[in-house]
Amino acid sequence: MKFDFEIVPRRILVRITHDTIMQNHISIFLDSMTYGGIQRVALTLCTGLNEQGYAVDIVLRQAEGALLSEIPAEVSVTDLGASRVARSAFPLRKYLETVQPDILYSMMTEINIMAVIAHEMTKVDTRLVLSEHNTPTVSAAGIKDQFVLRLAGILYPRADHIVTVSNGVRDNLQEIVNLPDQKLTTIYNPIDVSQIQKEAQEPLDHEWFVDTSTSVVMSAGRHAPQKGFDTLLRAFARLDDPNVRLVLLGKGEETTALQKLTTESGIESRVAFPGFVDNPFKYMANADTFVLSSWYEGFGNVLVEAMATGCPVVSTDCPSGPSEILEGGKYGPLVPPRDETALSAAIERTLAQPPDPEVLKKRATIFSPDTVITQYQSLFNTLL
């Protein structure tokens, strides 16, 4: 059986050119570069590590997605060409044997399992670092997810190290995988605060945001059950002030159902569904409150992004991440997931008494890439 792949600096196909690289070579393995939180983290990591002098590869199951064009020219992109995650182990093995990076850093549970399998099939001295970006036992809803978790329990101990993106994820992972503390490190996701603040200054052409008689609540994300947007809509319908508007960015399998719910709740004239937008940060910068209504998360990038613009935030106290980001409610109220009454009350309080935006911006800086990349450098140095 023959497996082939390409390394792609920007969009130009070339063959492997890393034969002379003998140290500080990091490969980041994930599914694709379609728009999403994991992909944004990968993009920030590869950019930051490259700036610190590492040779960096992005290794993708399929080299596709809108974020491909944002990868720095100095970073190589390897397309494994696997039609499914489960078929990526053999081409990944070939990549490891050919390129022999110092560290393979993989992202998300299924990808991690393939990384372990491929790594076990090689004799290279590559260190394997897995990263867990969601709360495993909470996010595993179906039979396939449960099977993947069982595999993780067996295979994760074979990795050299595991990074979790919040302490909540770390604690939950320990329920599945019996690992010594020294093999686990929590490193929060890097959020490019300065870039967010730059993009937040772009003009926003939307009547609700320029009308001083209205207040705007907003949220953003894939329209899926996990995000709890149905709870947000019901919470919004409970607000007494008819001059409050809701903007819900994103789309997904639940978009039609959510739009139907707005009609049934009698709030369709006060709710907008702009879909995915290129720059959500200008919306955040002009909103009066940002709401994260999720049932569960791994970290909650969007909370930090909103805070970076100075936008007040309200969040569910879901596993895992929001409580750590908001320091137990110090930087924004936390309410139980799926509790529309509590969520509505928290939104109302925040609209009435918003926090100092500069305090929120300062809090967001602790998640800046410089801080996070330094932590990754420290971890990698201990492994090399």
Your description of this structure?
It is built from 16 helices and 14 strands. It has helices at residues 37-51, 89-99, 109-120, 136-139, 143-155, 167-174, 193-200, 207-210, 229-237, 255-264, 281-286, 301-308, 322-325, 340-352, 357-364, 369-383, and strands spanning 6-9, 25-30, 55-60, 76-79, 103-107, 127-132, 161-164, 184-186, 215-220, 244-249, 271-275, 289-292, 313-316, 334-335. 45% of the residues are buried. By secondary structure, it is an alpha/beta fold. The protein starts with 5 loop residues before the first strand and ends with a helix. Helix 2 (89-99) crosses helix 3 (109-120), helix 3 (109-120) packs across helix 5 (143-155) and helix 9 (229-237) packs across helix 14 (340-352). The strands form two sheets. Strands 1-4-3-2-5-6-7-8 form an eight-stranded mixed β-sheet, sandwiched between helices. The chain has a six-stranded parallel β-sheet with strand order 11-10-9-12-13-14, with helices on both faces. The chain has two domains: 6-190 and 368-383, Rossmann fold, CATH 3.40.50; 194-366, 3-Layer(aba) Sandwich (Rossmann fold), CATH 3.40.50.
